[in-house]
Amino acid sequence: MPTSAPPKNRFERRRAETRQALVRAARQILAETGDTSASIQAIAERADVGFGSFYNHFESKTELFDAAVTDALEEFGQVIDERVEGIDDPAELVAVGFRLTARMADSHPELMRILRDRGLAHIHSDRGLAPRALRDLEIGIASGRFTCGNATTALSALGGTLLSLVALRLDRPDLDGDEAASDLAEMVLRMLGLAADDAHEVTRRPLPDLAR
User: Fold this and answer.
1) What is the pTM of this model?
2) What's the 3-state SS for the chain?
3) Model pLDDT, residue 209
């Protein structure tokens, strides 16, 4: 999971560990049931921390579940970032993001369930894949690789399509996820302005290894 700067002393380490345990418990609940009505006592027990510890870190369950979603989104962004290192073509970055996301339905199912259920409200978040995708869209527009005029509007279309792909992979595991992801990525790249042949070639390039 995403981490911040290492705590400086034992007290800070324990505090950080307790907070992360609560966030991890909230993520598990979101992935398993999506039910945020679980009691603070139940969350604390799942996290294996004292009930009173909850209020040392969060003012409410809403704040905790928001932190859990943010944590999941940031992990998602980091996973993709690590795999696309060295890729400069903004079109390929978009395509690889789609294709790796489809595979993460198998390798990171908890993460993908949270993204499916909670991602729509975070398409324009400043955490996770959204700011990275916005950056790539802006670079693509500035370089002429993409012909759309507004990166923020394009992000809405890209994000909505990506969430649809996640839902498809989780709800229809019988489908060929790689092919579905490539097809959707190709459609998005054509929407962004690539020619049909170019979009098809980009979305069929060798894919970085998700397991590394």
Assistant:
1) 0.86
2) CCCCCCCCCHHHHHHHHHHHHHHHHHHHHHHHCCCCCCCHHHHHHHHCCCHHHHHHCCCCHHHHHHHHHHHHHHHHHHHHHHHHCCCCCHHHHHHHHHHHHHHHHHHCHHHHHHHHHHHHHHCCCCCCHHHHHHHHHHHHHHHCCCCCCCHHHHHHHHHHHHHHHHHHHHHCCCCCHHHHHHHHHHHHHHHHCCCHHHHHHHCCCCCCCCCC
3) 75
Q: Highest mean pLDDT: which of 59-68, 127-136, 202-211?
A: 59-68
Q: Are 165 and 180 in contact (CB under 8 A)?
A: yes
